[in-house]
Amino acid sequence: MLGPVLLRASRSTRLRSAVEANGITRKVVNRFVAGEEDDAAVTAARHLHARGLTTTLDFLGEDVTDHAGARAVRDRYLALLLRMHEAGAAEVAEVSVKLSALGQALPGDGHTIALSHVREICVAAEAVACQVTLDMEDHTTVDSTLEIAGLLRSEFPTTGTVLQANLRRTPSDLAALSRSGVRVRLVKGAYREPKGVAHQRKAEVDEAYAHGLRVLMASTCYPMIATHDPVMLREAVTAAARYDRSASDWEIQMLYGVAGRLRDEYATQGCQVRIYVPFGTDWYGYFMRRLAERPANLTFFLRALARG
Ligand code: FDA
């Protein structure tokens, strides 16, 4: 029951100001966010690389509503890619990008603006041999995001796409992509969605996820199995073996600060494990979605507040 409340709260500007103003929150946020500056993200990535993991770096931000804000996010990614290259991290790490941070929701030509900004990011990424994945946001953005991903792939074939198992449309999106050979990250879905478009019960989402991962493993796509769910991870290993995929033909992805033991277990077994490393000051929405995913995170957060 708490999950939907927290997901609603993730879009509340009043609560956002209150949470951001509270210094203690920052300590809890640090568990999930690598830091504020590019250097902090690159340092976190290098530590993870030293442990045999790969990474995807995400400059936090979403729902940008003005042109200058969208350009600023593009510029942060361009600077990040240079920094990653200088640090020798660009080929091991990739970047994850939210199109709403690049202006997708701007009235009128938001779709075109986001495409133009993300294209510049892809040009810069290609120059340093880094890959790009487009994160998926709430269901109202899926058509635009899939269309942009498709357009980018004609120029930058490794551009990755995310599909959300909770959405009822996902089996048909998966079928459309299944012979394309593209990189697809499968997630359960982190946004609060209406009944008509998304499964509401955890059991239904899990069933859809398990089905989705089998379809992906059987397809020509490169599956990126993004979950901390031990049952789904076991399913993924079984399906990879069934479809004769070697360790380099698919990967597991997990979030920074979540399920470290599981992450290390799979890496030790020889699976490729990529960690999603968010950084920046605009952490509120991302942080609230992490709280919504696990009630224990909220308890941890409230305890820190109480300790003051
Ligand atoms: P589930 O929620 O069932 O959790 C399984 C177990 O994992 C829990 O019992 C708990 O132990 C652990 N766990 C899960 N979340 C936790 C947390 N926050 N803190 C501590 N433990 C936790 N979503 C989206 O809509 N668009 C996107 O682009 C992405 N991108 C993305 C990238 C990567 C690399 C990952 C791992 C996830 C995403 N997501 C996402 C988020 C995804 O949709 C989903 O909300 C979370 O991964 C949580 O779901 P699980 O699959 O882990 O399963």
Can you characterise this structure?
With 308 residues, the chain is an alpha/beta fold. The protein contains 13 helices and eight strands. Helix 10 (230-242) links the parallel strand 6 (222-226) and strand 7 (251-255). The model has no long low-confidence stretch (mean pLDDT 92).
**Helix fraction bin:** 40-55%
Please trace the helix and strand order, writing H or E for each element.
Answer: HHHHEHEHEHEHEHEHEHEHH
Q: Number of helical runs?
A: 13
What's the total number of strands?
8
Structure summarized in a few sentences:
By secondary structure, this protein is of the alpha/beta class.
Observed structural traits:
single chain; alpha/beta; eight-stranded parallel barrel; 13 helices; binds dihydroflavine-adenine dinucleotide
Topology:
Elements: H1 2-9, H2 13-21, H3 23-32, H4 38-50, E1 54-59, H5 67-86, E2 93-97, H6 110-127, E3 131-134, H7 142-155, E4 160-164, H8 170-177, E5 183-187, H9 202-218, E6 222-226, H10 230-242, E7 251-255, H11 260-268, E8 273-279, H12 284-293, H13 295-307
Parallel strand pairs: 1-2, 1-8, 2-3, 3-4, 4-5, 5-6, 6-7, 7-8
Helix pairs in contact: 1-12, 3-13, 5-6, 6-7, 8-9, 9-10, 12-13
The structure holds dihydroflavine-adenine dinucleotide.
